[in-house]
Amino acid sequence: MLERRSHGQVPDAPHTQLKAKDGRLLYEHCITRQGFDGPYTIAYHDKRPHEALPAADTPISLAAAERKPERLLRRHYPSPGSALELEPLPRHRGRLLENADVAISLAMPTRSDAAYFANADGDELYFIHSGSGTLRTLLGDVSYRAGDYVYVPRALLHRFVLEGSGTQHWLVMELRHPLGLPHSYRNSVGQLRLDAPYSHRDFRGAVLGAPRDEGLRDFWLKTGGTLQKYQLPASPLDVVGWDGSLYPFALSIDAFKPKVGKVHLPPPAHATFESQGVLICSFVPRPLDFHEQAVPCPYPHSSVDVDEVLFYSRGTFTSRRGVGPGSISHHPRGIPHGPHPGAYEASIGAKHTDEVAVMLDCLQPLTRSALAESLEDLDYHGSFVASAGSHSTG
Ligand SMILES: [Fe+2]
């Protein structure tokens, strides 16, 4: 997805010999996307990287329950008040919304992963609403903190090592097609353009340390909506070097440099990542529109081709009442949406917003889980009617 990077020992040419100090041949591990046509990284292992064997444990199904047809409503899921530990090891995720392109979940972990994990069902993009720690991967460590996006390529072995005690709070997006940066941000040689909202320097790629053995041998693989357990014969963190364009990274949402318009800009002006059927946008603090007659608040709209999901992280959300940090709203296609009563008028003259939020525009309709249903703020849809009076869910 990004520019080529290189860590540790690699031979002068791919597919040629690299030897340890004792003369043993090291093992190349070519990680490729889109068959062999997409981005790739070549890692070099001390041991053969393909010797994991299935454990005796029965695979765990993560298939979502079939949903009955539901009324089309704007929906709001306030932040859960306590840790969600609803799915089996090794993940502590609660799936909320899903279509064929993306699954949107919450994770509220309280402890480090006790096993390695790889998701063969898609790339993963985390948004760290709260918490900090280290993403430990085959290709090295990535430190993370609140406000970071954390990207884990499909099927890359990893685990999260949490810092401190208490509950962390993450938004988890599983993208079933490759995640990338918008093509319009690239120049003719693939560099990020000077007017892109971030630069290569903003992406904190994995840093490879010395090979290590954490003593862990359990490895969970998510594939086809199941979790399957494998046993590793030795530590998988035996990579001595790698080279390529496919690697995990963190990007702080605070590094995103927003565009500002004379009048209100539509959400794609804030595009941060894209995948087939999904556009991910970052709303960050910025000056508001500077036309003397501007209405800075988003106008009511019918974006008839997308389901819109917003995760509210920090600041004041001028267009929506009743949402707070950690809230998720889902506004489906088919019915218009817009600001809460009074917000449109009250925005006139506003010069600045301090909101921090992540938005997903999803081309396929999203269905929701029983967990989402259990979290729902049932007053939300009606709260957009001016005569409904004040509305607050905290
Ligand atoms: Fe919208």
Please, could you describe this protein's structure?
This protein has 394 residues and is an all-beta fold. Helices cover 3% and strands 34% of the residues. It has 2 helices and 28 strands. Strand 7 (93-98) and strand 8 form a beta hairpin. Mean pLDDT is 92; it is low at 389-394. Fe (ii) ion (FE2) binds next to loops.
Shape: globular
Q: State the helical fraction.
A: under 10%
Order of helices and strands: EEEEEEEEEEEEEEEEEEEEEEEEEHEEEH
Q: On the 0-100 scale, what is the average pLDDT?
A: 92
Strand order of the largest sheet: 16-20-13-10-15-8-7-28
C-alpha termini separation = 39 Å
Radius of gyration: 22 Å
How many β-strand stretches? Answer: 28
Structural class: mainly beta
Bound molecules: fe (ii) ion
Biggest sheet layout: 8 strands, antiparallel
**Number of DSSP helices?**
2
What share of the residues does DSSP label as strand, in percent?
A: 25-35%
